[in-house]
């Protein structure tokens, strides 16, 4: 898929510190009357993972949804449905990352305020390795982060009739990816 290659090329430019020189005021003007994004990206709120930068994308290229632990809920699904069925995006990319604080907190079974509900959405991925609250190695936490990406991908079509239909009709694709905060590299699960 051309979009995935576009993301791979953009990530390579990011790693090599040769980001596209963009005319931001011109992009503002060219997108002022509408948007035509080609992808929806669900990622974590982690400040080390600014999606448009690590994939070297410009204004209007992607719809970015950011929530701790790149979890799925009704609002995230509604945003994805809008992005694909209304705005015309052809790809949903779910991106997890290394050293994720939300995943680490879910592994530790942290229960504080509204975080309790959010972190519970990561528990299915945690349970694939150990029970929440168990002792986890750094490697096991990274495994949970990667499993969580796959878990979210599996949930998307199961919880959205709109996206499931678009997927079956091959109007969209859904893939996962994983960002390494130590190297800047994005691995794509294609």
What does this entry look like structurally?
The protein is an alpha/beta fold and about 190 residues long. The chain contains nine helices and five strands, in the order ααβαβαβαααααββ. It has helices at about 1-15, 25-30, 50-55, 75-85, 100-105, 115-120, 125, 140-160, 160-170, and strands spanning about 40-45, 60-65, 90-95, 175-180, 185-190. The chain has a five-stranded mixed beta sheet, with helices on both faces. Helix 3 (about 50-55) links the parallel strand 1 and strand 2. Helix 8 (about 140-160) crosses helix 9 (about 160-170). The longest helix has 22 residues, at about 140-160. About 35% of the residues are buried. The mean pLDDT is about 95.
Helix proportion? 40-55%
| SSE series | HHEHEHEHHHHHEE
> Could you give the order of strands across the largest sheet?
2-1-3-4-5
Q: Rg to the nearest angstrom?
A: 17 Å
Determine the structural class based on helices, strands and strand pairing. Answer: alpha/beta
Number of helices: 9
Secondary structure tally: strands: 5
Sum up the overall morphology in one term: globular
- In oligomeric terms, what are we looking at? single chain
Return the average pLDDT rounded to an integer: 95
Low-confidence stretches: none
How far the N terminus sits from the C terminus, by CA atoms, comes to: 10 Å
Residue share in β-strands: 5-15%
Sheet of most strands: 5 strands, mixed
What are the main properties of this structure?
five-stranded mixed sheet; 9 helices; alpha/beta; 190 residues; globular
What's the gist of this structure?
With 190 residues, the protein is an alpha/beta fold. The protein is built from 9 helices and 5 strands, in the order ααβαβαβαααααββ. The protein is globular, with a radius of gyration of 17 Å.
